[in-house]
Amino acid sequence: MTTAVPRAPTTPQKTAASGTTAHASPTVYVVDDDASVRESLSSLLRSAGMRAEVFASAADFLAHGKPPALACVVLDVRMPGLDGFGLQAHLSAIGQDIPIVFITGHGEVPMAVRAMRAGAIDFLNKPFEDTDLLNAIELALSRVSATSNERLELAELRGLYDTLTSREKQIMAEVASGKLNKAIAYDLAVTESTVKVHRHNVMHKMRLKSIPALTVAMQQLRRAGAAQA
Asked: Fewer CB within 10 Å of terminal CB in the chain, N or C?
């Protein structure tokens, strides 16, 4: 029976040379000691428009280096050497939050619970339907794509914030706290017209259209440690 292939999500990435936005093809890493599984999954993933890279062991995967921003791992549980759970724990320990979809021919409920509690996207028992795996991968890539976009947005926000003068940063913090121009002028020992000029500059440089948007931006910057509370 022919199954519908979900369309893989993509994430926008800015090129350094042109500043234009391009779509990156997602990469799915398959780590399984069974050569037939690696071959069949590689074919399936490529037919779904994804870049597939296969590895016969956790050690081979780790030796490959850091994965790209938009990627996930389809990981067998039982393998010689470092097994699937061991690799999951190692990736977490080194700060690699790449999403994992577990597959296994010896699945048990406690194993599935263990995997999901440790952050796995799904836990599929072999043999599984192609659509079940592709749907799990689509969910994994969608989550990592959202995280990647948040990081890009924060990086842009920090870059804009860094263009502000020290006084403008003070004004932004005061405005975000809900103070009126007159109160800010009193606190900073400047005229109200000076506050208005700096406030206008802040909105322009930060590319913000409203005070609520400024407040949200300030909260994001503080959470990221880019601005003082």
From this structure: N
Contacts of 228 (CB under 8 A, 6+ apart): 173, 222
- pLDDT averaged over every residue in the chain: 86
| C-beta separation of 88 from 75 below 8 A | yes
- pTM for the whole thing? 0.62
Convert the pLDDT of each residue in 96-151 to its tens digit.
Answer: 889 999 999 887 888 999 999 999 999 999 999 999 999 999 999 988 876 666 77
Q: Torsion over CA of 91, 92, 95 and 97, rounded to 10 degrees?
A: 80
Interaxial angle between packed helices 181-188 and 166-176, expressed in degrees from 0 to 180 and rounded to the nearest 10: 130
**CB contact at 8 A, 87 and 58:** yes
